[in-house]
Amino acid sequence: MSKSLFRKKSIAVILKDAHDGLTEGHGGGGSKLQKVLGVKDLTAMGIAAVIGAGIFSTIGEASFHGGPGVSLLFIITAVTCGFSALCYAEFASRVPVSGSAYTYSYVTFGELAAWVIGWALILEYAIGNIAVAISWSGYFNNLLAGIGLSLPSWLTSNYDSATAEIVASAPHIAGVPVILNLPAFIIVVLVTYLAYLGIQESKRSANFMVGLKILVILFVIAVGSFYVNTNNWHPFMPNGFSGVMKGVSAVFFAYIGFDAISTTAEECSNPQRDLPKGMIYSLIICTVLYILIALVLTGMVSYTQLKVNDPLAFVFQAVHQNWIGYIISVSAVVATTSVLLVFQIGQPRIWMSMSRDGLLPKRFSKIHPRFKTPSFATIITGIIVGVPALFLNLTVVTDLTSIGTLFAFILVCGGVLLLPPQEKADPNNKRFRLPYINGRWIVPVIIIAFAYLFREQLPQKFSFDGGWEVWKHNIPFFFFAVAAIVFSVLSFVRKLSLIPVLGLLSCFYLMTEIGFRNWVVFSIWLMMGLVIYFGYSYRNSKLNQVRRITLV
């Protein structure tokens, strides 16, 4: 059984399945996805997924802890994501099919790891979108208030945060108050319907929304620069580097999404060339915008004032430019809508790939004969996101989404190390190739330099003086330290490629900065996934069926 848990799907088989549209017996009548996406569309989708709720909300919390130095955190996170993006690009060029990190893990680590990462991606896409939908509702309500309109408070709240006044004003059914976040539910329904209609319609909508929100962000940066007081940039890191790193979860939440581009591989005109470009271009553009926004925010007001839910609107109110706050509210609504759209496109395509492999029921891989989209999977995604958004207030969702994404990045970076050597370059083949840089000496030197820079903090990380309540938060760092030593040795002995090793270790380090409680919840989530795998997916896996036929 241990061998069957790590059974792998070859690249040749995956490419054949994609070429045939759907594997035998998985419904859809041979319908295929439409190949309509180019570099511009993929870059726009990446920007649409990345520039969303993070730049309008979580950036304030990160700036409060890190001060102006939070701009460095954006650079650190961008470099980390850059390493991962290059690894994604390498996989996308070799395995140009839908499925993202799930498919890549199936090729390199085997079926069990593929299922685990597919299950973790549900955490990134679906649960992350619940938070985005709730955030969208808040921006939309602010927009209505700006024009003198408002919805009843019981239609814009939830049971977790409803006050006694809201409960009293709400209608009651059988003595139970009816409290709903109706705008959050409606936007999920509308976006899901758009994703259901087709990738062509989704592409046009995403391109329009991206163009609009970039114009607004550039406007905010340009106007805000006139109100920057450089004295607010001193001290640059008021709480030291540890203060800067406190915002890692919030900042990383602002970056997740570029990997969603890889789920559209089968809808790209030339995925081997265009997917890598779309990922890297979107990451560069978003990083520049994030750094400029961070510097403008912390320059307009003191970082101590930025622990607010709507930092962009707040800083312009502080300089008596309230009218700009209304423009920001419009942009926030557009930005979060585009994030919802890209993730509602991405999640069904991952489920479609899992269904093709037999790990999910066949209906998840059914392609609509007219709209050429994974119709059933899209509807289920809408239900899973829309219903919780109607009722819940998820306070730890940014951390949970970040930890799921970083976990996916680690497996993708590690998977690149397991790929067979590239064949001799063909001058007629323009696909992306990850450059090989020998990490034999560089990786150990970087680890030693890291240990030197953090020499004062390291004894605290390994100290038991504070008891279990203190030490348990250092458990992730302990495993990171072990991984750093192991990969230093492996890099020296086996001359491992530098970029994937740095991507893996940097993502692992960012995971150590996420709270212990979120590790516990994430572990429980993975355990639930394993129950489903051994209860259904293991037996119904297509590779397992092939194995049975072979044994017979």
Question: Any descriptors?
Answer:
single chain, 552 residues, mainly alpha, Amino acid/polyamine transporter I, two-stranded antiparallel ribbon, 24 helices, 67% helix, globular
Helices and strands, in N-to-C order? HHHHHHHHEEHHHHHHHHHHHHHHHH
Classify the helix fraction into a percent range.
Answer: 55-70%
Give the overall silhouette.
Answer: globular
The CATH superfamily is known as Amino acid/polyamine transporter I
CATH architecture annotation name = Up-down Bundle
Q: Residue ranges: pLDDT <50 for 5 or more in a row?
A: 22-30
Widest β-sheet, arrangement of strands:
1-2
Global mean pLDDT: 81
* Portion in beta strands: under 5%
Look up the CATH topology: Amino acid/polyamine transporter I
Largest sheet: 2 strands, antiparallel
User: What structural class should be given to the helix and strand makeup?
Assistant: mainly alpha
From the N-terminal CA to the C-terminal CA, the straight-line distance is 17 Å
Return Rg in Å. 23 Å
In DSSP terms, counting alpha (H) and pi (I) runs of 4 or more, how many helices?
24
Look at the structure and give the CATH class. Answer: Mainly Alpha
Number of domain modules: 1
What is the strand tally?
2
Transmembrane segments: 42-60, 72-91, 112-136, 178-196, 208-228, 240-258, 279-303, 323-346, 376-394, 400-419, 439-455, 475-493, 498-516, 522-538
Keywords: Membrane, Transmembrane, Transmembrane helix, Transport
Subcellular location: Membrane
GO cellular component, one term: membrane
